């Protein structure tokens, strides 16, 4: 059992769209990710996904509902099946909480897909 | 899909040791709790429990290992089965992430047990 200082862990990496695992709570992973720019449209067939912004701002775009801009200290849970596209104009630091089975690009596989995530 | 501003949600209640549900991610609940004083020793038979401090400080006492003091922006995951006692000298605001089945007092039931938690 070791405590995690979120800011310290974020200082350990600098690349974008490459989530790291910072902890596990039963079937869920706690991941840290630095996001900048536009990600791909995707959805997760079976998994809800929580985005919690700890620094910066994250725009979550949706095809079937209004976009949501998350600021520091705000979170949104994207339910399974919902098509979404994360966009960060400036770098955002985000905690992701989602089932361990969740793939970052969801239903698609491309050059941004990350598997076997690093543990912090 | 509505975003949650954590600070705003914490402003909606004032009692201690009475977690509210702020979201659900598949089998897990995201709970907010204000803690002050000493809670009871307990463990959760089947559930890991994550304590993420967003304001103040939380001391987690353990019978079989060193106590851990969590400050703002730090979290600890207490694995299932591990006896623990949360203590907050001053009021602490804490996000709890744990399976929906988790009871706040774990293996014991007493006057501090909270069931059918309020949703924020």
UniProtKB/TrEMBL annotation, chains A, B:
Top-level division of the source organism's lineage: Bacteria
InterPro entries, per database record: Cupin_2, PKS_Associated_Protein, RmlC-like_jellyroll, RmlC_Cupin_sf
Residues annotated as signal peptide: none
Chain coiled-coil ranges: none
Domain Cupin type-2 stretches: 37-96
Protein name listed in UniProt: Cupin domain-containing protein
């Amino acid at each position: 059992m070791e405590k995690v200082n979120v800011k310290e862990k974020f200082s350990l990496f600098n690349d974008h769209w490459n989530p790291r695992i910072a902890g596990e709570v039963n079937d869920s992973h706690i991941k840290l990710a630095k996001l900048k720019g536009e990600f791909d449209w995707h959805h997760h067939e079976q998994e809800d996904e929580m985005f919690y912004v700890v620094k910066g701002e994250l725009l979550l775009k949706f095809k079937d509902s209004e976009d949501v801009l998350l600021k520091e200290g705000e979170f949104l849970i994207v339910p399974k099946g919902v098509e979404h596209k994360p966009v960060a104009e400036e770098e955002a630091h985000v905690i992701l909480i989602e089932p361990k089975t969740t793939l970052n690009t969801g239903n698609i596989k491309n050059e941004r897909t990350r598997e076997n995530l690093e543990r912090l």
